[in-house]
């Protein structure tokens, strides 16, 4: 069920009841007028009179009675410019004005036949019928809204909809067995203090950060930055201004930490400046006495919330003022740490792949390619440099905000997945970064197997990372990086929180955390990233410049197998020392090899050994063999034979059953649609990964066919799938029959349900993938051959043919460092294809002009402006417009003023709570 703000459903219902009552009166009045019009038409003596009667009646119903009469008949002195324009364009008013003129003509001109009169009568009767359908549709839509509000109002209170402090006799029923199992594991971790060898952690950090003069200098600067920030923050006189409250509140609301009651209260704070100022003053008072701050002795309520991926996460429900204070401090510390770590990344202490080209090779290239004049190659633009830029921009410390305005990603990004419409997505979200990582991985596999003949990738994360992170480990690392002692004491207090499960009722026991970090707190993320930064740097150092691609505790490494072994050794040592454990279910290795000679550069372009693989003895490399297991992400697994991601259909089957269970629990049409949109429209599609050039068309076809299988499995008895099921649901509940497909997919502004169609989103980009990934590389290799011939010709022209130019093998030896063509292909393969918009037909164009400003809603939806519509809505409008127009005579099933749009918008924005 949709979760909205505390007390809001009743407020919404009151507003809706008033509007529905008024609409009912208007509907009754319309019916009386319609019947009067029909009776008068039936009594009319001839066809012309029938047409005139219908015209006068319809124009009165639409509020434009002047369109049925001649100006002189009305004794008007003038006609407004707006009315004149309205009857001169392609609108219905223009049609009415024309019929009025033609009827006048028919009084005198015998060439206006009875056939024409009959057609006008039929046209007007059809229009009256459309008006009736639209009024009926408005009444039906209001009933659906009422059903949803009543379902929210009568929803069984639970921990995620009630504040335990005010409803002590109400608690969430015991969840499914898997929830209880996960809770037992969680409790076994957070209430037990792990044994950490402090000396081993200190020795590890010293070996890592003080082994060279460059690393010692970078560490010194990092410590100075952190210490200075902590000292200045602690010495503040006024911490938070009224202006700060906006970004503090906005980021806290995005964290998914607050209950719906606290969310409503915080939004009210933000609306009322006087109240916001009072809150600001109280927060400053708390911050001024931070040393004495502590959690309430009777414990902070916690609850388990089910996520779409099947995991149940534990969220705290602390005092709102504490939440705001911790959000402020967490953001400030996170920004400072990200800046300090980025400075470290930019220092000479961080190794780069670019340093691995032998000096003799550099000199040889300089002699052959730069002496004759300006270099045709830019050393500052290469695949290796691009790798570092992408790593720095998208993967290094991206869990930490760079400013207070920065949108930091959710832990698993589920919030954005469940709320964001594919046609309305803005900016790059965490889910986009995850998909880009998969695109990068496949692109690297294609490039490296082609260049070097093999490619190895390993992937893992830490088991129960949030709950299992030892407090001692975090405090040692934070102290090592320069955090002042008074702040360390506060952080210890924050971590050692007394908690109680609201699911256990009013007599729940209180226990103090001994391990792990609270969910969805910015301080928690900051501490975790500070510890994981050590692993990032360890991998970079041991692999001589390669980088660990990491999103929170989910990390990937790839390249030559020797590099992967060294990286895995470094990760294994890090985990052992820091008291962490790898998650075996998500740990695995896949090895890919070049399959055929046709996929190489050919006889004239020789694949070279990986110049970036570390030069280590084999017995040293095998200290920790690479982990076994598959490489998986979402519903995908990396197939070593096919060299691409394929969908795990068995895993999909498990989620088909879960989706069926969630849909069955929905008590209203709106909540059913919201669940469907979140699960089928976004969750499935997102976990198939967004298409990219490196994936090719086959990936899109695989995703589309799987979505089709899911829909057929859920609705085996419905030829039209989900819409057939919804059509039957609506018929059973509201006795509304024969709804067109457009009703389900059109936006709510036009009287639709706004069901998402993920097939369209995939088909929009399918035809924009026209070339295979290996074909794209071949073009780059051919262009390199052309560049080689041109460089050779220029060299001999300058020096003469007696001088020896570099061989083709020398020219292509360090392609990842020097080849522009390879760089262009590399970037092209990681690119997500643009959506290819369909064409506008004359039929749709005609009916778009009939949409009023009120009907059309936002420009990103279906509107009268084709250019302003997104490709998704253009497709939806074109494919379904025929049935909509046939039934309602328009793209809108109802006029906007008859819709409770404010209520619908609020219900849509509420976060969906999945059944536990």
TrEMBL record:
UniProt region (Disordered), positions on chain: 404-426, 593-624
Superkingdom: Eukaryota
Annotated Polar residues bias: 603-622
Biased segments, Acidic residues type: 404-415
Protein name: Reverse transcriptase domain-containing protein
Organism name: Aspergillus nanangensis
């Amino acid at each position: 069920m949709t979760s909205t703000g505390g007390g809001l459903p009743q407020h919404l219902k009151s507003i809706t009841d008033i509007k529905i009552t008024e609409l009912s009166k208007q509907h009754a009045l319309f019916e009386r007028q319609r019947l009067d019009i029909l009776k008068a038409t039936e009594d009319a003596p001839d066809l012309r009179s029938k047409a005139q009667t219908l015209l006068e009646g319809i124009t009165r119903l639409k509020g434009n009675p002047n369109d049925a009469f001649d100006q002189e008949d009305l004794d008007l002195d003038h006609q407004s410019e707006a009315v004149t324009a309205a009857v001169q364009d392609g609108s219905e008013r223009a049609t009415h004005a024309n019929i009025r003129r033609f009827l006048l003509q028919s009084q005198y001109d015998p060439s206006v036949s009875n056939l024409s009169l009959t057609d006008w009568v039929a046209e007007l009767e059809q229009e009256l019928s459309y008006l009736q359908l639209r009024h009926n549709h408005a009444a039906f839509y209001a009933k659906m809204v009422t059903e949803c509000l009543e379902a929210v109002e009568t929803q069984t209170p639970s921990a995620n909809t009630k504040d335990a402090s005010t409803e002590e006799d109400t608690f969430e029923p015991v969840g499914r067995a898997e929830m209880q199992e996960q809770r037992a594991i969680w409790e076994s971790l957070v209430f037990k203090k792990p044994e950490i060898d402090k000396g081993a952690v200190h020795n590890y950090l010293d070996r890592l950060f003080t082994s060279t003069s460059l690393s010692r200098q970078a560490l010194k600067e990092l410590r100075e930055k952190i210490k200075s920030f902590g000292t200045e923050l602690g010495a503040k006189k006024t911490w938070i201004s009224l202006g700060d409250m906006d970004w503090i509140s906005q980021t806290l609301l995005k964290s998914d930490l607050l209950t719906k009651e606290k969310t409503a209260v915080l939004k009210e704070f933000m609306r009322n400046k006087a109240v916001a100022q009072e809150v600001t003053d109280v927060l400053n008072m708390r911050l001024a006495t931070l040393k004495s701050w502590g959690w309430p002795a009777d414990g902070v309520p916690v609850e388990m919330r089910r996520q779409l991926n099947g995991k149940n996460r534990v969220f705290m429900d602390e005092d709102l003022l504490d939440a705001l204070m911790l959000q402020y401090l967490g953001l400030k510390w996170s920004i400072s740490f990200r800046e300090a770590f980025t400075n470290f990344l930019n220092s000479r202490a961080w190794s780069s792949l670019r340093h691995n080209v032998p000096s003799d090779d550099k000199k040889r290239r300089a002699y052959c390619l730069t002496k004759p004049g300006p270099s045709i190659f830019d050393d500052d633009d290469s695949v290796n440099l691009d790798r570092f830029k992408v790593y720095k921009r998208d993967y290094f410390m991206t869990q930490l905000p760079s400013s207070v305005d920065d949108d930091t990603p959710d832990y698993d990004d589920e919030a954005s997945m469940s709320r964001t419409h594919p046609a309305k997505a803005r900016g790059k979200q965490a889910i986009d970064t995850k998909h880009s990582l998969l695109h990068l991985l496949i692109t690297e596999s294609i490039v490296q197997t082609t260049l070097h003949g093999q490619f190895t990738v390993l992937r893992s994360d830490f088991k129960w990372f949030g709950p299992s992170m030892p407090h001692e480990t975090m405090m040692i690392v934070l102290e090592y990086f320069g955090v002042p002692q008074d702040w360390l004491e506060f952080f210890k207090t924050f971590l050692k929180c007394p908690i109680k499960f609201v699911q256990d009722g009013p007599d729940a026991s209180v226990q103090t955390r001994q391990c792990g970090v609270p969910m969805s707190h910015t301080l928690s993320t900051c501490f975790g990233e500070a510890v994981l930064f050590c692993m990032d740097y360890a991998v970079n150092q041991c692999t001589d410049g390669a980088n660990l691609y990491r999103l929170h505790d989910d990390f990937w490494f790839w390249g030559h197998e020797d590099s992967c072994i060294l990286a895995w050794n470094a990760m294994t040592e890090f985990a052992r020392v820091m008291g962490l454990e790898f998650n075996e279910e998500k740990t695995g290795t896949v090895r890919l090899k070049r399959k055929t000679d046709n996929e190489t550069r050919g006889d004239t372009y020789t694949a070279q050994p990986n110049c970036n693989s570390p030069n280590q003895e084999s017995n040293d490399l095998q200290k920790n063999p690479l982990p076994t297991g598959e490489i998986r992400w979402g519903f995908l697994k990396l197939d070593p034979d096919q060299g691409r991601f394929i969908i795990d259909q068995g895993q999909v089957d498990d989620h088909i059953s879960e989706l069926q269970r969630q849909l069955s629990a929905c008590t209203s049409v709106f909540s059913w649609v919201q669940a469907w949109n979140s699960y089928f429209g976004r969750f499935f599609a997102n976990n198939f990964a967004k298409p990219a050039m490196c994936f090719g068309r086959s990936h899109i076809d695989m995703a589309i066919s799987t979505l089709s299988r899911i829909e057929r499995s859920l609705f085996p008895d419905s030829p039209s799938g989900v819409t057939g099921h919804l059509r039957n649901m609506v018929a059973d509940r509201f006795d509304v029959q024969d709804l067109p497909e457009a009703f389900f997919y059109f936006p709510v502004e036009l009287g639709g349900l706004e069901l998402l169609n993920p097939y369209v989103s995939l088909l929009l980009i399918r035809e924009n993938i026209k070339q295979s990934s290996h074909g794209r590389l071949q073009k780059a290799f051919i262009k390199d051959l052309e560049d080689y011939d041109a460089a050779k010709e220029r060299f001999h022209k300058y020096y003469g043919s007696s001088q020896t130019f570099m061989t083709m093998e020398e020219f292509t030896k360090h392609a990842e460092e020097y080849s522009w063509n390879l760089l262009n292909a590399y970037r092209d393969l990681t690119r997500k294809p643009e959506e290819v918009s369909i064409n506008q037909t004359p039929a749709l164009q005609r009916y778009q002009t009939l949409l009023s400003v009120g009907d059309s809603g936002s420009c990103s939806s279906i509107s009268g402006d084709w250019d302003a519509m997104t490709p998704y809505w253009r497709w939806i409008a074109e494919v379904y417009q025929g049935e909509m127009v046939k039934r309602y005579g328009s793209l809108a099933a109802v006029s906007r003023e008859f819709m409770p749009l404010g209520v619908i918008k609020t219900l849509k924005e509420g976060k969906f709570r999945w059944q536990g």
